[in-house]
Amino acid sequence: MSMDRKGNSWRHAREGGHPRHLTKCMCKVAWIPACAGMTIVGSDVALAHTGLEHAVSFASGFKHPWTGLDHMLAMLAVGLWAGLNGGRALWAWPVAFVGVMVAGGALGIAGVPVPMVEPGILASVIVLGLLVLTAAHLPVALGAALVALFALLHGHAHGAELPAQAAAVTYAAGFALATALLHGLGLGVATLCRGDTGRLVVRGAGAVVAVAGMALAVV
User: Fold this and answer.
1) How high does pLDDT run on average in the chain?
2) How far is residue 37 CA from its own chain's centroid?
3) How far are the Cα atoms of 41, 47, 48, 115, 171 from residue 180, in angstroms, in the given order?
4) Among residues 136, 142, 151, which one has the least CA distance to residue 83?
């Protein structure tokens, strides 16, 4: 908590901020989902989710994010974006992704339908890449909500793919650990790349993620 010159309390933008600041933040990034949506329209969503193998163990669950390009890019981007924002985002956004991803997997296993899963996974890669590219700063709660939405889709896709005889709990543990490591890798890159030049490197990585997501959308 900080004080302005008149003694009024205010919070840093990364921790919620004034409602007017929140409106400004949302306006700055409102074009990103629209851009992703236009890219996805007309794409073959059946090919959007890569790295599809039936997993029955901790090892295969751990391996999956590293072999599915869409998942790997999205998870790296979460870490990069959290690293650019700093503060509570450093842990809140990765934790939100992992936690909601596991919940989404449980919904998929239970057969609970979630709409637009495959297009949403594509959108997550593009949007997260653009958020890193633009170094977008959002309140922690808003960023966590966005990350959680994408995590739900990623988790549901994998839960729905598991065969009935699969060891779902051990698979989910492996997948969650690999996801956390990918977040950590993105955070590590963002932490090591300090200063103006370093931030440009991180933002350039975001551009690569976004372009790769667009490529997946048109393949």
Assistant:
1) 80
2) 16
3) 31, 25, 22, 25, 14
4) 136
Q: Whole-angstrom Cα distance, residue 22 to residue 16? A: 7
Please list, residue by residue across 198-208, b when 16 or more beta carbons sit within 10 angstroms of its beta carbon and e when fewer do.
eeeebbebbee
Domain ranges of the chain: 57-218
If DSSP codes are grouped into helix, strand and coil, which group holds residue 99?
A: helix
pLDDT tens-place string over residues 47-97: 344 444 444 678 888 887 888 899 999 999 999 999 999 999 999 999 999
Q: What is the pLDDT of residues 4-41, one digit of tens each?
A: 444 444 333 334 444 454 444 444 444 444 444 444 44
Full-model pTM: 0.74
Integer angstrom CA distances of residue 138 from 34, 82, 123, 132, 196: 18, 10, 18, 12, 20
CA distance 103 to 100: 5
Kindly tell me the burial class for residue 219, based on how many C-beta atoms sit within 10 Å of its own C-beta (0-12, 13-18, 19 or more): exposed
What are the start-end ranges of the H helices in the chain?
Answer: 19-29, 31-40, 58-67, 69-85, 89-110, 117-133, 140-161, 168-192, 195-218
CA angle, residues 103, 140, 118, in degrees to nearest 5? 40
Q: Give the DSSP H or E segment for 9.
A: strand 9-10
Task: Mark out the alpha helices in 6-57 (DSSP H runs).
Answer: 19-29, 31-40
d(CA 88, CA 107): 28
